[in-house]
Amino acid sequence: MKKFSIMVLAAAMIFGAGQTAFAAASFLDVPGDHWAKDDIAFAAEKGIVNGYYQEWSGTYTFAPESAVSYEEAATMLFRALSSAGDLDAAVDRVALIEQYKEVLDQNNIAEWAREYIAYLLNKNIIKQEELSSFVIGEETGVPAPRNTVAAWVAKALEKDSAPVQYLPFADKSSINDEQAVYIDILYRYGIMKGSLNLDGAVTFNGDTGVKRSEFAAISNRVYRLQSEGNNSNADIFSYAAEQIGDLRYDKSADVVVDGEMSSISADRASSGASVVAGMVLPSDLKSQVLFYTQPVASSGKIDKMEKLSDDVTRVTITKDKDKIYYIIDSNTIYVGNKSAVKVGASVSYIADGVKLIEIK
Fold first, then answer.
1. How far is the C-alpha of 185 from the C-alpha of 165, rounded, in Å?
2. How far apart are CA 134 and CA 121, in angstroms?
């Protein structure tokens, strides 16, 4: 993380009343011990967040405790995606402003936010009917609740939703089924982790607003995820296995089940199989579901191999028209010529859950 001791003016982009964008900044109201200091500095460097110029002192403030409006949230999300090189280059963003002009006018969307909101509308990240909540009167921006921010960010990430959602929040009963899908994605990828209360409980607080400091952190995590590649530990995996006993849930996790775990949608493994989020987990996350299986021998054709890290590869194997996703790691045993295990090859293997024990 680069640190800057002086303020560098990079552009004269007006983001809102008195709000200016610049590449790197030291904000008067962000003390050195503020929890989000580095996140705010990094987001400012990338042009994702902006500061407020104070004419009386010639300095900048950030207002870290202020709530982010719908328009600001859309703008920051767009800029995080843009900085990460994750925008659709084929989209004419200027033309989109004209395409959505009528609905933007009807809902008094600020000029500075129109390009960003039009793009997110076009990508179905924001729904047109949501715009009526953005502004009160002519120009007063309304704070965006966490549930809405979670949905937008999750849609922008374009990650697979899980058939089970892990919701480790004390207020999980207030999260509806649709929200749970998005919040689970963000929790798995470390984008939104909830708030630690004084009593030690972690809550999501879906109906409350998001502070500017919090959105700076969210934007940075989106940027890093989209620019630096997948976090394989959070991906969805399917696997074929012989089940031992009944399907069992991790009793230390709060799990919401969407559908029957033993019968998977058509594009997933369907016979004796399961699709589970986070089968390979970082140390700070718990498994969403504990599925007892025993090793199974099988065969199929390799459709795809993706290098996830130096010693981990995700391999897609088609068996009886089902696509099954497995992990090959440093413990996998190759029988015969290792180089023969490649896309297009017919292979036989022994799998233990999501991991391949042996392949040839």
1. 8
2. 14
Q: Is 88 exposed, middle or buried (0-12, 13-18, 19+ CB in 10 A)?
A: exposed
Domains of the chain, earliest start first: 1-144+209-229 (no CATH), 232-359 (2.40.50.140)
Per DSSP, what are the bridge partners of residue 298?
Answer: 349
Conformation bin of residue 18: beta by default, left when phi > 0, alpha when psi is -120 to 50 = left
- pLDDT(324) > 50: yes
Query: Residue 277's pLDDT band (boundaries 50, 70, 90)?
Result: very low
Local structure of residue 68 (DSSP, 8 states): P
Query: Of 357, 347, 342, which is closest to residue 300 (Cα–Cα)?
Result: 347
Least Cα distance to 192 among 149, 255, 252 occurs for: 149
The confidence band for 2, taking pLDDT boundaries of 50, 70 and 90, is very low
DSSP 296-339: EEEEEEEEEEEE-SSS-EEEEEEETTEEEEEEE-TTPEEPS-GG
pTM above 0.70, yes or no: yes
Buried b (16+ CB within 10 A) or exposed e, 55-73: eeeebbbbebebbbbbbbb
Do residues 109 and 135 make contact, with C-beta atoms less than 8 angstroms apart?
A: yes
- Token readout for 270 is 């369907």
59-73, 225-239, 257-271: which is most confident: 59-73
232: tokens are 């394989």
Distance, in Å, from the CA atom of 135 to the CA atom of 141, rounded to the nearest integer, reads: 5
As a whole number of angstroms, the distance between CA 100 and CA 24 comes to 33
Burial readout 317-327 (b: 16 or more C-beta within 10 A, e: otherwise) = bebeebebbbb
123: number of Cβ within 10 Å: 17
- The residues, ordered by sequence, that sit 6+ positions from 222 with a Cβ below 8 Å of its Cβ are 77, 80, 81, 84, 153, 156, 157, 191
